[in-house]
User: Fold this.
Amino acid sequence: MLLSALINVVLDYIFIYPLGMGIRGAAIATATAMIICAAYVLSHFFPAEQHRAVPSDSLPSVVGNHARHHGHRRRTFAMQLTAAR
Assistant:
């Protein structure tokens, strides 16, 4: 939000005074500042070097780890049931 406010102040000045756009310039500056800030925030969630959440070559190992993890849960639950008897 601070980044957006700072960009908005600079763009307000540029659009209102040197370009002489008045209120329309202030509106454009505000929208532009919000879009720049949103793009900056979203760039942290979607880094340029990562195009997929799970690379296709590692998909079988991820699925295998997931299955092993759930198998561990079943064994743990079975041991708890056995111990409770």
Remarks:
- The CA atoms of residues 12 and 62 lie 49 Å apart.
